[in-house]
Amino acid sequence: MSAAEPPSPEKPAIEIHARVPDYYAGRPTANVIDPDDPPWGVPHAVMTWLSSVVLLAAVPLLVVIPYVVYRAWFFGAERPEALLADKNVIFVSLLGVIPTHLLSFAVVWLVVTNRGRRPFWQSLGWSWPEDFGPWKSIGLAVVLLAVGFYVSQVFPGQETQFDQIINSSYKARLITAFLAVVTGPLVEELIYRGVLYSALQRAIGMLWAVIIVSLLFAGVHVFQYSNNRGVIAVIVILSLSLTLVRARTGRLLPSFVMHVVFNGVQALILILQPFVEKHGSEQQAVAGFLIKNLSQLLG
After folding, report:
1. How far is CA 128 from CA 166, 199, 255, 264, in A?
2. Rounded Cα–Cα distance for residues 185 and 255 (Å)
3. What single string gives the DSSP state of each residue in 40-105?
4. Model pTM?
């Protein structure tokens, strides 16, 4: 019997294969993912945007149908004008925006990650650039609020559809404030400045991408304020500013923080406004409210 041959030094007994995850499905994998060179293209980006618009139109309507059926069953058929003025119809339709945003987020996740095959936040640029941190984002949002206040004073308008919604009931104000701060900015930034802008700027350049994304974002919001030029101008300024920051920084997080701060201040005003107006005229309401409550705290 011959002795067993020792393992050859040229052929190791165990072979180790190192494999780097392929985040980009065929693209060369890099340690740092460039949000301006996304793995999705313009068709997927446009599909994501169209899906969000369709969901925004359809889901709240589907959510409110059971209540309308209930009203018709117990109280008889009503005219469309009466249903549109029903504060419960308005509130339920606002509640329907929450599943709308959740479904839109799911669509964004599917496109960005290719059903879980790629990283989500990293692909979208959800980080801070070196020269544009949180304080710059907050400061720029405050400047935009000041500009918006000035523009709305120079170009006053009539009561808008949004005004009618928030004035329908206090619970409508609360759900509107929630949407404006918690779900709205996140989903809108992921769709417009995340998926859509990154694909467009690679295909047609930064300038046209900024213009198209800004107009699409403003256009979706305009129908609520169609009879108020001042508010429409403010929305256009906000949309352009958010998109320019995304283009300038190459990151999505600064635009998101700006959006949250801009909406958050207005949401706080929506919540406090009914209490403030009980203290007198509009010119004296804020001062009277603060003085009274401050004196109670100190006394």
Report:
1. 35, 20, 10, 20
2. 9
3. S-HHHHHHHHHHHHHHHHHHHHHHHHHHHHHHHHHH----HHHHHH-HHHHHHHHHTHHHHHHHHH
4. 0.82
Rounded to whole angstroms, the Cα distance separating 24 from 29 reads: 7
Give yes or no for a contact between 53 and 220, defined as CB atoms under 8 angstroms apart: yes
Coil, helix or strand at residue 124: helix
Cα 45 to Cα 108: distance, rounded to the nearest angstrom = 9
- Distance, CA of 29 to CA of 32 (rounded, Å): 9
CB atoms within 10 A of CB 48: 23
Give tens-digit pLDDT for 190-207.
Answer: 999 999 999 999 999 999
CA-based R_g, the chain, Å: 26
Q: Which two tokens stand for residue 160?
A: 């808008």
Between CA 72 and CA 60 the distance in angstroms is 18
Phi first, then psi: give them for residue 251, nearest 5 degrees: -130, 155
> What is the rounded CA–CA span in Å between residue 47 and residue 26?
22
C-alpha of 105 from chain center: 10
Dihedral over alpha carbons 117, 122, 126, 128 (to 10 degrees):
180
Question: Per residue in 204-248, pLDDT tens?
Answer: 999 999 999 999 999 988 877 877 888 899 999 999 999 999 999
> What is the DSSP track for 229-298?
HHHHHHHHHHHHHHHHHHHHHS-SHHHHHHHHHHHHHHHHHHHHHHHHGGGSSHHHHHHHHHHHHHHHHH
- SS percent in the chain: helix, strand, coil, step 5: 75, 0, 25
In angstroms, rounded to a whole number, what is the distance separating the alpha carbons of residues 293 and 26?
62
Q: Give, rounded to a whole angstrom, the gap between the first and last alpha carbons of the chain.
A: 103
CA atoms of 52 and 13, how far apart (whole Å): 55
